[in-house]
């Protein structure tokens, strides 16, 4: 056991004090009584200081009681601690005030919930979005105030990786939940009604325009075909070019309609298991017959677990194989394979063709994005193939992964995570 220097000092003082009392007492012939009185006085002095300490602790302030000996040291240490605590409390209050001020100004509804889903705090935007009332709704369970079944299921599901889009009083809301501390949640929601409406308008416009264009272009290509058969040598070249372009336009329109259909139609669900062996053999045979021996196309597959739409996945893999054929020089190889790891299943389409520069990869699935417009046109591309693949994979909760090296080749992998 180590004694602090102030305790050692205190013990020396006590010894001196008792010796002093002993000397005085011996002088009057009452040595032991004097020592006893000295000890009693010493205890009373400690009790007095203890009382002052308790009073100060009950109402701490900057003025600590004046004291001597070990008590002076104790009061000094407590005073320092008090000052430090006050400093950090002030800093925390300032941060909290700043946080509240900024969340008050946020256009997003922000709500703090405790582990029982009871509201602890909310900002003014929550009053507008959810009709919460200050004073009244703090302490209430949020599922008693926002009674949307989707919202309640999401909140109780405890899986907040993806945000939730749900309807609330004629509004479309996007909700994010972040858990923090011990079972506390921060909810943030915003109104996306306008954005959804604009998206719908854009989709409707593209879908309507494509449908409107389909008939005149089909009529035109019919007439051009007739013209092709009956025109003289001088006009043959321009008529052939017009025919090629109308065929291209027909293809673009068909793919735009396909995209619009994928965006607007509801998904049939992910509980239908796909016969992947049949599907992959089907697209493989189709690619081999279209390729007519220009490439070495191989297939190495094992059954993998994928749920969803057979037709849609068939379209996606067929688009990837068509691209591989298109962008791989003759005699190159193309491989269709499958694999599985602990997280999900994969379908890979690999080629040793042109490859794609790193800077293009993140944009490949955008509509009409091409690495080389001339080359894509020349090969009969529309710039929509990978956009369709992405849309289909999104609907299946799957992801398109692309690895590529210029002049070495590309691997497109469709990753279907296990749910
Ligand atoms: P496109 O109809 O032009 O092929 P896609 O959306 O299918 O449009 O593909 C977008 C672009 O990605 C293509 O223009 C092409 O440059 C590139 N690409 C796609 N697949 C491959 C591939 N297997 N190898 C090299 N480039 C590819």
Automatic annotation (TrEMBL):
It catalyses: ATP + protein L-histidine = ADP + protein N-phospho-L-histidine. It comes from the Bacteria. Residues 208-419 form the Histidine kinase domain. CDD domains: HisKA. One of its GO terms (biological process) is cellular response to phosphate starvation. GO terms for cellular component: plasma membrane. Keywords: ATP-binding, Cell membrane, Kinase, Membrane, Nucleotide-binding, Phosphoprotein, Transferase, Transmembrane, Transmembrane helix, Transport, Two-component regulatory system. InterPro entries: BphY/WalK/GraS-like, HATPase_C_sf, HATPase_dom, His_kinase_dom, HisK_dim/P_dom, HisK_dim/P_sf, PhoR_N, Sig_transdc_His_kin-like_C. GO terms for molecular function: ATP binding; phosphoprotein phosphatase activity; phosphorelay sensor kinase activity. Pfam families: HATPase_c, HisKA, PhoR. This is histidine kinase. The lineage of its organism: Bacteria, Pseudomonadati, Pseudomonadota, Gammaproteobacteria, sulfur-oxidizing symbionts.
């Amino acid at each position: 056991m180590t004694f602090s220097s102030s305790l050692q000092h205190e013990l020396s003082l006590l010894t001196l004090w008792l010796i002093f009392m002993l000397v005085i007492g011996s002088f009057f012939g009452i040595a032991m009584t004097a020592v006893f009185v000295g000890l009693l006085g010493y205890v009373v002095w400690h009790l007095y200081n203890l009382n002052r300490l308790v009073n100060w602790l009950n109402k701490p302030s900057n003025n600590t009681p004046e004291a001597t000996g070990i008590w002076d040291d104790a009061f000094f240490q407590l005073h320092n601690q008090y000052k430090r605590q006050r400093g950090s409390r002030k800093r925390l209050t300032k941060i909290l005030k700043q946080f509240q001020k900024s969340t008050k100004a946020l256009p997003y509804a922000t709500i703090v919930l405790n582990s029982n889903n009871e509201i602890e705090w909310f900002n003014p935007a929550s009053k507008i979005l959810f009709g919460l009332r200050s004073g009244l709704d703090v302490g209430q369970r949020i599922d008693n105030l926002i009674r949307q079944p989707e919202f309640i299921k999401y909140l109780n599901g405890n899986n907040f990786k993806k945000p939730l889009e749900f309807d609330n009083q004629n509004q479309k809301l996007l909700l994010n939940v972040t858990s923090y501390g011990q079972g506390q949640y921060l909810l943030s929601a915003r109104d996306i009604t306008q954005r959804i409406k604009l998206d719908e308008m854009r989709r409707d416009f593209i879908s309507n325009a494509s449908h409107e264009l389909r008939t005149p272009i089909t009529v035109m290509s019919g007439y051009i075909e007739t013209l092709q058969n009956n025109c003289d040598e001088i006009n043959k070249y321009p008529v052939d070019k017009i025919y090629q372009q109308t065929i291209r336009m027909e293809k673009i329109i068909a793919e735009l309609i396909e995209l619009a259909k994928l965006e607007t139609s509801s998904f049939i669900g992910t509980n239908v298991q796909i016969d992947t062996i049949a599907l992959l053999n089907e697209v493989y045979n189709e690619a081999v017959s279209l390729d007519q021996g220009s490439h070495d196309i191989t297939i190495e597959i094992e059954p993998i677990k994928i749920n969803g739409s057979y037709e849609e996945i068939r379209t996606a893999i067929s688009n990837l194989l068509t691209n591989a054929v298109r962008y791989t020089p003759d005699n190159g190889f193309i491989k269709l394979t499958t694999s599985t790891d602990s997280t999900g299943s994969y379908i890979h389409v690999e080629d040793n063709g042109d490859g794609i520069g790193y800077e293009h990869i993140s944009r490949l699935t955008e509509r009409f994005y091409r690495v080389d417009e001339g080359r894509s046109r020349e090969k009969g591309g529309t710039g929509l193939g990978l956009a369709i693949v992405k849309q289909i994979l999104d609907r299946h909760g799957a992801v398109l992964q692309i690895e590529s090296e210029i002049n070495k080749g590309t691997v497109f992998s469709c990753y279907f995570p296990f749910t």
